[in-house]
Amino acid sequence: MTTIVQPWKKGYKVYFCDDAKAGKIKHVGTVELEETSKGMRPSEFFVRRPGTSHAEKTPTKEFITVLRANGPIKLTQTMPAFQDFLRGMQLSWETTTLCRTCLFDDRLTSLTEETRIRCGQEYVCLDCAKRELRRELGHIKHLGKRTQLHIENLLEEYRDLDMVLAILQPESLDTKKTMFDRLEAHDQTPTERIENLPLPRQFVDLCGVETLMPAQQRAIESGLLYGKDLLVVAATASGKTFIGEMAGLKNYLEKRGRMLFLVPLVALANQKYERFSEKYKSVTQTSIMTGVSRVNLPETRPVGNRGAGGGIVVGTYEGMDNLLRKGMPVSNIGTVVIDEVQMLEDPERGHRLDGLIARLKYVAPKAQFLYLSATIGSPNLLAKKLNASLVSYAERPVALERHLIFTEKDGKIPFIKKLVFEEFNKTSSKGYKGQTIVFTNARSRCHTIAEAIGGMAAPYHAGLTSQERRSVERQFEEGKLACVVTTAALAAGVDFPASQVIFDALAMGIDWLSVQEFHQMMGRAGRPDFHDLGRVVVLAEPGVSYSRETKLTEEEVAIQLLKGDMEEVSPVYDIEETSEEFAANAITCRGREADIITVGNIMVGVGDDPIQELLRHKLVKKSGGFLELSPLGKVMAEHFIGMERLLEIDKLVRVMDDPLEMIAELFCMDEEREKEKRRIDRRSTEKKESAWIGDKKAYAKPDSEPAWVAKKKEIHAVEKHAHDDARRKKAGSRKLRREEEEVEVSKPPRRASKEMEDRVERKKREASQFIPPPKRKPREGPNVSGKGSTTGPSGDPVNIIEGAVDLRRAGKYDEALKILGNYVADNPKDSRALVELGKVYDLRGERDTAYLCYQKAAAANTQNREAIDRMNAFLIGITVDIDNDSPDSGKQPAVVKKKKE
Question: Which of 119, 183, 269, 316 supports an S-S bond with 400, CB 3.0-4.6 Å?
Fold first, then answer.
């Protein structure tokens, strides 16, 4: 048995522990010492059992007896008086380090250099430190479980409670305490001089580069200058663009064809165009292919040499793809550079980039293809899919510090302002001041932050004119701005030479950033030609979320992004996307079926073959080995829309005259489709997030329930059945009230909300400024007899329905069914026509189909009492009179004919 002694009030607290039971405390005593003629001796001794408060007074001689009989005596600190007492009793002792707060709760926890946690001026165990941490975090509401786990991990890593609290409750910004991790720079190995490479002399003189960077050296070693297709994955500022320049200009000057340099954004294309035009103007002409603004203003008019005629062609993905989709020739291509190839994973544009690459390989089979990216998960798998060699260089040329700070929204701007000016006051060894990019999730927030920082900051987003954006770019490059505040949508855009990146928000609109997008934005901090160190600061607000579709909060997303790994690029396309790319491939391949299949097989993504659906809807006509697109099929390819969208537009054109109504209907369809998709995906998303957070109980269903639960349910079911039988016998033929309540009456769908109606009206007003009123011809169709026109008095809807009713009363059900069926197909929301159609089906004995018609009629018009009465009559088993109804019976309640047995 071991005895442990620690100071306590006026005396000492003594713990008697059983070594045989892992040091479990058997008794807790308190003792006081007094000076006697024989030295220090115990004056009072009380003993209690651990976990109780009642202590019994015990003779002091028993205390001395226990000390002599027990094993070692351990003191938690130097105690001169107690040590004198032990010497007088000729007892030995040793010192030990225990958690003081655990001892207060009658627990023993030994502390070592590896396990102790600093808490103020003393050390405690990890459990006590976590308990204190949770108490300090009590004021932060909605703190996610993942965040709590991360904070506890920080506590284990730093071994200092005060340092962790500085991250969560930063009264003052101390970057030494808020650092999440540090990505060290890699020592650059010696590389080749540019003049020693097999490059044309003209290029060597113009490029402005003397020595290669490591990523460029690896590309050279992988066959860059010998026509090899390469996937280059390297950190931002590692020289990927120059890799494309070396191959493209070499191939052009050696007469193997022109260079296409394709990027995802217009702003980035403009920047590359200006740079190449200035750099290589003595060698070749540079042209640009981008979209043109719909608003014809001086600042939005296209500038530069536009088209595809230069030796260097810079463009956006869609700008180049537009030529191919129109069937225009693209010839003499020697090099194709696809910048930011990680866009293959983009949910909206990924399939178009995938199809563009496949079509370019078809029209330029001998060209060298180079794919550039800084953020790709499993790049070796993507390289195989692209049939390219992988050049990977993960090391950064500049070290990067990453900081994580939890703060409320109101506290973000003061932190941003302080960080911006701290960085701007630094000057690197290259002579450049530190500059900052602040990423946020809304354009209005860009202006708010920029105004708070002052004149040394400027907003930068897609809502500015091209002249305003170029002015900001120029001021930033000249060092006149300390900060640019931009949206996450431009993360892959203009190449600002910043030393610091601050995340004011971790969302793009209402959607959280992906790991790839975060790494892309984060990589903009620190440039080797400008800075010595890059810094990334993530400001996360605990408990906040930008969407109801996710349980994750911003501080949880921050940790996920900082620790997350990028996923493999393996897109999956639905029929909408595959049909669009099939149509584009058909135009590029001039309809040759074998070539269309070949181009489709080149694509990285996978999806269903759309050919059967396209043939069924007559968008494609097959003739021998050729597939001919219909005029609508060509529209689908040229206008970047899929089959389902095209069919929706075609259907609306046939039933609507007002283009504003069509736009409003399409808008509502998109919203409803998006809501439905979110409803379908919500459960799987929540399961993934719950598993990631660690909240597995939320969705875990036990494979089997305990036997006693099953038995209890079985007994309850038997008792309930017997009770219902007794009530049923007592009630006779009358139904039980509960059974009547259990009859489910199908309710009409909820009508559009006021918010949706207002939004539709707003869209119509906006569109009316640009769309002229339509000039439509009267639509032809069958009249009551099935022949001729429906226009004029005879084609009035009322006349058509009344004619069908007369045919039904005459017993000509097939003719009435044909007329009403055609009419309802064109007017699916005509409530009365649906009721009359249901009556015809009812008389033909197809009662289930009739019920569906009544149900649709009730949904189309909730005031149609006849539809509701007939639907309810069907549900409770009543047959209504149909054959002998009067002409105005549609306004009268249904008449009971007989009761269904």
Answer: 183
- 191: Cβ–Cβ under 8 A, 6 or more apart, which residues? 211, 212, 213, 214, 216, 217
| Contacts of residue 60, Cβ cutoff 8 Å, sequence gap at least 6 | 31, 41, 42, 43, 44, 45
pLDDT in tens, 827-878: 888 888 888 888 888 888 888 788 888 888 888 887 888 888 887 777 666 6
Examine the pLDDT at 142 and tell me if it is beyond 70: no
Distance set, CA 853 to CA 564, 578, 696, 801, 874 (Å): 53, 35, 45, 15, 12
Distance CA 597, CA 132 (A): 65
Residues 6+ apart with CB under 8 A from 578: 351, 607, 608, 609, 610
Task: Dig out the tokens for 717 from the structure.
Answer: 């079911």
**Residues in the chain, overall count:** 901
DSSP secondary structure, 324-356, as one string? HHTT-----EEEEEEESGGGGG-TTTHHHHHHH
Helix (H) or strand (E) run with residue 584 in it: helix 575-588
| 420-428 LR contacts (CB < 8 Å, sep 24+) | 420/453, 420/456, 420/457, 420/482, 420/483, 420/500, 420/502, 421/456, 421/482, 423/482, 423/499, 423/500, 423/535, 424/456, 424/482, 424/483, 426/499, 428/499, 428/530, 428/531, 428/532
Q: Specify which residues 40 forms β-bridges with.
A: 35
Helix, strand, coil percent content, the chain, rounded in steps of 5: 45, 20, 35
**Is residue 883 within 8 Å of 840, Cβ to Cβ?**
no
Give the pLDDT score at 563: 78
Cβ atoms within 10 Å, residue 729 = 8
Closest CA to 575 of 619, 526, 529: 619
Report DSSP state, residue 87.
H
388: phi > 0 → left, psi -120 to 50 → alpha, else beta; which?
beta
